[in-house]
Amino acid sequence: MPExxxxxxxxxxxxxxxxxxxxxxxxxxxxxxxxxxxxxxxDERGISWELKVLSAHRDPRGVAEYASTAAMHGTxxxxxxxxxxxxxxxVVAAYTDLPVIGVPLTSSKSVMGGLDAxxxxxxxxxxxxxxxxxxxGARNAAILAAKILAQGGGYPGTPGRPSVEL
Length: 166
Ligand code: RP5
Description:
Elements: H1 9-16, E1 22-26, H2 32-44, E2 49-53, H3 60-69, E3 77-83, H4 88-94, E4 100-105, H5 115-122, E5 131-132, H6 138-151
Parallel strand pairs: 1-2, 1-3, 3-4, 4-5
The structure holds 5-O-phosphono-beta-D-ribofuranose (RP5).
5-O-phosphono-beta-D-ribofuranose binds at residues 27-28, 30-31, 55, 82-84, 105, 107, 109.
């Protein structure tokens, strides 16, 4: 009969809660179709991901909770897509040190085909960067996420180069 594990239950639960490498957020169910190419691209590259619908304006506490805990679950890059006054990528970036890739999306209520979302995402204040791909550029966001993940703390030809501490 083996001895009982000395590990407390909370620690075991933490091990079971390992998240995907990439977290994809969208501000609304109405954004789902536009962000789908990101998931397709990540699947083709064998990169794990999850999709959450969380609005920076309608559920700010949910966004804060997800963004501030993603790194602890093993997630390494966040993609955030939103339309209109697209605050989601910026708010996510405010709550995490993970790289955040913003995807401006066209919605039925967009101004100038998504220019509103593009400016909302790209015009971040100094100190809180968000990488921004083209309007409806979900596939490019996934490719950029893959490139970030591929760095792994070193560059080709410089083995053992340590990761930069944030
Ligand atoms: C944004 O407002 C969402 O990202 C979406 O693109 C847009 C419209 O949202 P719904 O009214 O369709 O939910 O926050």
